[in-house]
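Predict both folds.
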Amino acid sequence: MYKFIKLTEANDLRDFMNLACKSNYDVGVHTDYNQIADAKSILGLMALDYNKIVKVVTEDESFMKKIDKWAVEEEG
């Protein structure tokens, strides 16, 4: 399953990573430019451009509910 999110502040990035680290599943962050980062890696997350919407992919339903506050509609 996937969800589109937008992280706008450094605290959002930190909180998102902390939630991902608590998940027992893999959590990937995908960009429009075919970049993929492990959501549990601060270095991987910091390398991405958050001026745009990113796609979060995981099988963890509980995690997906916790990130609803950052959820946005896909840019068309």
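Second protein follows, with its predicted structure tokens after the sequence.
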Amino acid sequence: MAWGKSEEEKAADRAERDARARAQQDAEDAQAAQIRAQQDAAEFAASPVGRATEAFKANAGFFQIELEVSQLTGPTSFFGSSSNSVEHSGAATDVLGRIEEVGWHLEHVGFVFIETGATSTNRVFLSGEGTVTEGNVTGIYLFRRV
């Protein structure tokens, strides 16, 4: 009588372990894919196009959305600086077109500047004050159901 397992038994054990490991990995991959799909669906639902799609499915007559177009920022300084810089949002330029593809028609557009803060400092070498205004330009888009 030989000690231990035969080569065939060892090979069968290895094959069984490998099959269990593959099955475990496949289950983990499937679960990860399901989580990614749920995250993608939630991300789409929160996006402008996703919100437009949901409103269209709900048979809404109008759909309104506000999208930031640009931001106005600037550094304050001891010398009374009043320099501002404009940063345009990196939003996709085809968002409005994609909303229209859902079945909406762009009816009206308006823009508004929303001030989020301002800082004034006295100028050191000149008279007056330097003011830095901060805020953003927001586009208000009204769509009508086609």
